[in-house]
């Protein structure tokens, strides 16, 4: 994950009891807030994550909410060279009146320059001044309203030529259960066909099926695809029909995982297990990665509206590595060879 994050992340999954404190929870919530503001997650996803983070007991609980939100350090703002002020009353090289002492830029409405308009207004007085002022005000009003009215008329005239954005992408917003076949206009990435469509899209994009991280929701997925240079990656958003490049990128020390090696049926079974032991679950997803350097694994997560959550971490063969509900954790698998 990105090295510039401000708080400590979860230790390897073999040490799952590291307790979360308020500082870690607050830092995590700020990261989720930032993801919402940047458009990477929707409001419902944000609210669900914040609810879970507020009740997080361990660093592993926090990690599950943030794995797909790791962000690179923000770039420093560009340095703008200061412009030396021009002495008051002195003309600038262009001959325009100096405005260095003004808080806001001078906007000239109507005919003539800013200097002549101010002079005319200052010279008016009495009834004649009021009449001239009224004429100028009318000119200003017309100059402002006419362009706006023209823009509105042009917009209304052209609206029938706009593309029908409502027809783009899946129009069925039903959240289907793991393994449930979606309707004709629906999406369910938690099916064999839905997952294979994601794998095919990544292969078409990168000529490979390797990612650093994949977070798979029922209706969409977010994947970190390597760029091929050092440990760089780019974020892509899969909506069930199209893989879209997001305006997010970074570097990571995590090992890559092969999407084609994850059995989608094992993913479905894992999700059904955690959903089955959650009371009225309203959220479920899978994280597929090798964050801890112990081999590719999937974390299946489910929660409900009461902030109650449960999850399983399994290997690619379905072996349970960690169970959030178990009093005694399973023995780690023996190293091969």
Shape: globular
Catalogue the unreliable spans.
1-15, 72-77, 88-126, 154-168
Tell me the number of helical segments per DSSP (H or I, 4 or more residues long): 7
Annotation, overall tally of beta strands: 10
By secondary-structure content and strand pairing, the structural class works out as alpha+beta
- Strand percent estimate: 15-25%
Describe the fold and architecture.
The structure is a single chain. This protein is of the alpha+beta class and 337 residues long. Helices cover 32% and strands 17% of the residues. The chain is built from seven helices and ten strands. The strands form two sheets. An eight-stranded antiparallel beta sheet has the order 5-4-3-2-7-8-9-10. Strands 1-6 form a two-stranded antiparallel ribbon. β2 (213-216) and β3 form a beta hairpin. α1 runs antiparallel to α2 and α1 packs parallel to α3 (59-66). The longest helix has 33 residues, at 126-158. The protein is globular, with a radius of gyration of 29 Å. Residues 1-15, 72-77, 88-126 and 154-168 have low confidence and may be disordered.
In short:
The protein is an alpha+beta fold.
Protein topology:
Layout: H1 22-37, H2 43-54, H3 59-66, H4 114-123, H5 126-158, H6 192-206, E1 210-211, E2 213-216, E3 221-226, E4 232-238, E5 243-251, E6 257-258, H7 264-276, E7 281-289, E8 297-304, E9 309-315, E10 320-323
Antiparallel strand pairs: 1-6, 2-3, 2-7, 3-4, 4-5, 7-8, 8-9, 9-10
